[in-house]
Amino acid sequence: MRRVSLTLVLSGILLSGAASLSCTAVGKGAPGPLVKPQSGGNLISERIGVPEGYRRITVPDGGFGEWLRNFKLKPGTPPVKLYNGSPKGNQSVHVAVLDIDAFQGDLQQCADSVMRLRAEYFYSRKRFDDIHFNFTSGDRIPFSRWSKGERPAVRGNSVVWTGGHAKGTARENFREYLKTVFTYAGTDSLSRELKPVSSPAEVLPGDMFIHGGFPGHVVLVVDVAERISDGKRIFLLAQGFMPAQDMHLLRNPNDEARSPWYVPGDGSRLVTPEYTFDWSELRRFP
């Protein structure tokens, strides 16, 4: 479990290591078949083909959804590794591993993985003002202030900003910002930043199913396809987990013939290999 040296209590919420309580597992499930690669490449859109009669939905050029769809995967199906390099105990849940590091220390867990990808997308576009997340207290922590040399400081029951620190948008400074966010944010804070999606049938890349709390969990929608005949959608999911580990694409444990694609409203709840969500827990960044 994550340990931090600072404790923050605001509005009755204990923030010491809050993000370390953001994930909990419900079961392992059995491995299912993969969708065969459609071109043998290492991007999600290349590696994971769509079922017959489906096509990927159109997404805005340069948007978060397109960026996720074309995210690079590690070659083959390597084991998911923890932040310390040891293999995850349950290797039956994934069909591919995202080609991005698990960060340093036991920090980048489930909600942190979503925030990491969102931040990396804006960072890659040099949209630094769009990088911001909230602490569990509700305090907004923008990278724009961080890059100007300010730092959020925890003092008793409040968060204040202090100056005189390293400035700039260099990657090293960016990663230090993320480290702080990962320490004091989690599923509870992230869920309160998002807006509900009225129906899972309207799912889009970049949406997520999130159960905020202590513990909670979140899985990110990284691609969506639609049935050509009637427009009904299916989607792919990725997750990080606890302890901090490689982000990975999830298989669908419910319908092996369709794995790893999920169908909105298939069953009373969304069952993933390690967590079950209510369909009403679909959320979207504002």
Order of helices and strands: EEHEHEHEEHEEHHEEEEEEEE
Mean pLDDT: 88
Query: What is the gyration radius calculated from CA atoms?
Result: 19 Å
Number of strands: 16
Structural class by sheet pairing and helices: alpha+beta
Helix content: 10-25%
Q: What is the terminal-to-terminal distance?
A: 31 Å
Give the total of domains. Answer: 1
Q: Helix segment count? A: 6
Shape descriptor reads: globular
> Runs with pLDDT <50, length 5+?
1-22, 24-34
Beta fraction of the residues? 15-25%
In short:
The chain is α+β, with helices and mostly antiparallel strands. It is built from six helices and 16 strands. The chain has helices at residues 44-47, 64-69, 110-124, 143-146, 171-184, 187-193, and strands at residues 9-10, 13-14, 54-56, 94-97, 132-134, 140-142, 151-155, 158-162, 195-196, 208-211, 217-227, 233-239, 248-250, 270-272, 275-277, 282-284.
